[in-house]
Prior knowledge:
The complex is a heterotrimer.
Chain A: H1 13-40, H2 44-51, H3 55-88, H4 94-106, H5 109-120, H6 127-132, H7 141-152, H8 154-167, H9 170-177, H10 182-211, H11 214-220, H12 230-239, H13 243-279
Helix pairs in contact in A: 1-13, 3-7, 3-8, 3-10, 5-7, 5-11, 7-10, 7-11, 8-10, 9-10, 10-13, 12-13
Chain B: H1 13-40, H2 44-51, H3 54-87, H4 93-99, H5 102-105, H6 108-119, H7 124-130, H8 140-165, H9 168-176, H10 181-210, H11 213-218, H12 229-238, H13 242-275
Helix pairs in contact in B: 1-13, 3-8, 3-10, 6-8, 8-10, 9-10, 10-13, 12-13
Chain C: E1 3-12, E2 15-25, E3 30-34, H1 41-49, E4 56-61, E5 64-65, E6 76-79, H2 91-100, H3 110-123, H4 139-152, E7 157-161, H5 169-186, E8 189-194, H6 197-203, E9 206-211, E10 214-219, H7 221-226, H8 231-236, E11 241-248, E12 251-253, E13 261-267, E14 272-275, E15 284-294, E16 297-304, E17 310-316, H9 317-326, E18 331-335, E19 338-342, E20 347-350
Parallel strand pairs in C: 3-8, 3-9, 6-7, 7-8
Antiparallel strand pairs in C: 1-2, 1-4, 4-5, 9-10, 11-12, 11-13, 13-19, 14-18, 15-16, 15-18, 16-17, 19-20
Helix pairs in contact in C: 2-3, 2-4, 3-4
Amino acid sequence: xxxxxxxxxxxxxxxxxIGAALIFLAxxxxxxLVTIFSQALGSGFRAYSRAFSEPDIxxxxxxxxxxxxxxxxxxxxxxxxxAWVITKFNFRGxxxxxxxxxxxxxxxxxIAGLLFIFLFGSFGWFGSWLMAHNIKIVFAAPGIVIxxxxxxxxxxxxxxxxLMEELGKDDEEAALTLGAxxxxxxxxxxxxxxxxxxxxxxxxxxxxxxxxxxxxxxVSGVIRGLTTTMPLYIEILYNEYQFNTAFAVxxxxxxxxxxxxxxxxxxxxxxxxxxxxxxx
Amino acid sequence: MGxxxxxxxxxxxxxxxxxxxxxxxxxxxxxLSALILYAAHLSxxxxxxxxxxxxxxxxxxxxxxxxxxxxxxxxxxxLIIAWILSRYSFFGKKIIDALIDLPFAIPTAVAGIALSYIxxxxxILGSFLQKFGIEIAYSKGGILxxxxxxxxPFVVRTAQPVIAELDKELEEAAASLGAxxxxxxxxxxxxxxxxxxxxxxxxxxxxxxGEYGSIIFISSNMPYESEIVPLLIVKKLLQFDxxxxxxxxxxxxxxxxxxxxxxxxxxxxxxxxRKN
Amino acid sequence: xSIEITQVGKKxxxxxxxxxxxxxxxxxxxxxxxxxxxSGKTTLLRIIAGLETPDTGxxxxxxxxxxxxxxxxxxxxxxxxxxxxxxxxxxxENVAFGLRIRPRRLRPDKAEIRxxxxxxxxxxxxxxxxxxxxxxxSGGQKQRVALxxxxxxEPKVLLxxxxxxxxxxxxxxxxxxxxxxxxxxxxxxxxFVTHDQEEALEVSDNIVILNKxxxxxxxxxxxxxxxxxxxxxxxxxxNVNLFHARLxxxxxxxxxxxxxxxxxxxxxPQDVVISLxxxxxxxxxxxxxxxxxxxxxxxxxxxxxxxxxxxxADIDKKQWALIEKENRETIYILFxxxxxxxxxxxxxxxxx
Lengths: 280, 276, 352
């Protein structure tokens, strides 16, 4: 995109703006990224790998993976269902449904955790029933999973709704006239059309599920090796001045974030291609 | 026949709507009601006293002010970054474009320890700033740093497509009428991207108001001084002050809903303007 | 009869898309649903396909009440305006789709599917494109693939929604003729939606003219063109001059002031004849106010002396040359096949 010749932008503007942006991004993006990895490897690669063999850290990685393993598939399935119902049908209350999707995104993670304390805590709605049946949700792994499911709920639907709205209903209707049933239509027609957007939604859900801190901190009760996820363990390590180990754990989550960004860039490329093809 | 039946053309309406509503009720609606109904047990005067407590008010003031300033900071730098990404080509642009979303993808705890480490007196930026007598980490300034980081993608990502889609003919028309670059920018370009910038500001503000993870590492977390509202809720919970926590929680919830409503209106407005 | 539509009505919110539609679509012919946008023609087509359900009334397909039957069980071939080809599938896979998704016991074997797809592709003259993706085809080719895909399931009826709407003029012409030719080969009952009267006249055996959710007229192309049932149909099927006048004992009176019943007067520009003399005394005196040469035809703007009515005539270029040479102050105009629509809603022929 070239600026037309008739608009003479003063010559200093481009370098000045790029300079200002680069300084800003250096402070907030580049230096933090470099710091995470350099601190993680600060005491050598051997120390780095040793950090992960520590049982408590290993347990926190396991809990984090378990949480993601439950939340990501469940929220993916429901996210797709929700996007389908919102983009393929018209019904009363649709706007309310769309707004409700945003709720987990709009409220503080701390409030998200708080909700489940008031629902499952000892004085909450189900508190006494849960205690009578000796079921622990809050301050235990199930609470972490539920709070994470709440926080990561919007991502898949948010990615899919605009994409599916843009694609319209023609392809699905064509499949129906050719004799396809609902599931065939979804798996053979809709899914191939939305796969890239879905992939990014899933990757984002996963990144957030593994990285959630506020909501999980409130419901976990932080019992070492039992209810600490990786982000919670980072806090413990940092507060104990074990900086290198804290950054070692952090570096894993940072790698995950970088992979997420790469997937995003690739997906955007493919969706742009798809859009171009549609115009041809 | 004359039977009125609401049938829809594509299959699966009843099933998918039923599943969606059930899941969202269980995951979102019932938990929200649990908090609101718990707070509803409080009498109005109790609720009021829990909120106008000096420490709570101080926390709200700190949260709102620092979030506002961070969002304002992002308004300006977000505009600059969105501008250079959509108008100029330069080395490394693709990578920068991808990294803008880092604050969105990286866990807040990781961001928190990294920023706190960098800005601590021993850190690379902290030691540099200390020479000028500026302390960032473990102070109010730290809150601002964390919030700027968290809010960065919002302004950039709402402004970027609007700048890219700006009608070149408008600028050319203005130039043909004799406007210079500054006049074109402030009279033609800025007004057309302002709604998007404002939406980005509001999104960054909404996100910042609830932020917890990244701030608690870099702030000194002192009551009356650098204690944000989400942290205060956590502290109340640790002291088993559930009444206080629920009152503050509901107030925060109301703030979030007002912001959500405001953002919806703004987005609708910006969308309509883009369509025209 | 193949498709019977009885008292069908459909509303979208406050908007009435269709109102009390009764229609029988004959077997083995091409029927055009013609109307302006918002007339309900596409809604009617989608109701036949089961993509939309009527609020009232019934649809019966081949003697079987199908009002609540699902689209996938109706055996209708549907061709979409924007083709709706599956972008991730090759041309071959698109055409094979309807066969491959059948339950195992009804599904032809691989060789049979292949044979069938290729015979369809040869019918639409696209065998060489079998492995292309839809993105690599031109608009006309895409539409032919869409047609082959719809035919693959051996539908009892073929439904086409503005099939040529998204194509440019020349391709549209070709494809129209080709569709007519194709139909003469396979004789499948077909219904197509269009807003282009020329297209309807050229392609179809029957025309159903819709306006504001109601049927205005049903008939063969010549029929509706020559004997339009009402002013809307007349106006919709070609250019028309319309003005108000009075009818006094069978004689047209252009001056409003005098006696006789008030009527609306319709005449097509090509039915307006310009004459230099007034031999039979029935001509209307007029002045030529302008003209425009359109290839072999000339559009002449006229104004009557009495009543100052503006009238457009469409005449032959040679005739125009004669008139222009004479350069008369006033000429006479005669009407062939004009229509008069009177206040009591009767509709009669008129000629001078």
